[in-house]
Amino acid sequence: MLVATYNIQWGKGRDGQVDLERIARTIGGADLVGLQEVERNWRQMEHADQVRRLSELLPDRFVYFAPSVDVDDSRRGPDGRITNRRREYGLLIISRWPILSARTFPLPKYPVYGHLNDCGVLLESVIGHPGGAFRFYVTHLNYLSERQRLIQTRMLIDIIADAPRQGGPVTGPGVPASEFGADWIALEKDEVPAMPEPAILLGDFNMMPNSPEYSLLTGPAGPDYGRIPEYGLFVDALTAAGQRECEGITYPANDIEQAKRIDHILLTSDLAGRVRRAWIDEAADASDHQPVYAELDWGKASAG
Questions:
Q1: pLDDT tens profile 23-37
Q2: What DSSP letter does each residue of 72-131 carry, written as one string?
Q3: Pick the CATH number of 2-169+187-296 from 3.60.10.10, 1.10.10.10, 3.40.605.10, 3.10.180.10
Q4: pTM here?
Q5: In angstroms, rounded to a whole number, what is the distance separating the alpha carbons of residues 260 and 281?
């Protein structure tokens, strides 16, 4: 199974051209992708609904979109009728397998004097892989403030850790069989979404491997044993594949910012041994970020 994360900067490549076909070519070989900075009606351009366009370009995939920012773009016509429309940008899952369930959790955000600051979310999904279902999370953390990223990181750790105990969007342990498929919920017993233990968390975290946010997610680094991924924390797919933490760039330098490794694929510790290889696609030019890939052995994954 090939997994990828990519901040697509609404399809604007290094040449300044917006080209969603180039995005689809870049990530089209992956089985499961989490994209950030995907837009719907955010600006005037061809294919302003990027969710629809990417779905058209990848017609054999399941997709799910979660806006992190959603503002009004409705219009009143001369006859007084309202055309309801939203301006949105956020996160998109593209999957070879069904997206069995999905939930979106807002992350805290606070104004920063002199800067624009936008909302972030954690998108949770359950992927129906034939080798065993698993949780798949996509996020995009605050780009401005380490303090705000720390707040967001603590929150997403708690959400992910508690999800199996809470169960899926609909739960019903001990419910009589006669109640399934009937009354208001109208779900058959085998349609009630599970909430498996194994989880993948990826996205644009805006954090470097030497940051306190990274240590919260992957455990502190010690002089003798290195990173200690405690139960409930995560393993970085790149380092599990043998890359040193200080190596690699996913956000090349520009006139203002230094080169950084801020896009990550993280795995719950029970999945660390499933990493076959992981890499950064340094040749991709479809965005201001580089996509990150991880190939995982999922042939005998547990459904949790």
A1: 999 999 999 999 999
A2: E--EE-TTS-EE--EEEEEEEEEESS-EEEEEEEEE----BTTB----EEEEEEEE--TT
A3: 3.60.10.10
A4: 0.95
A5: 14
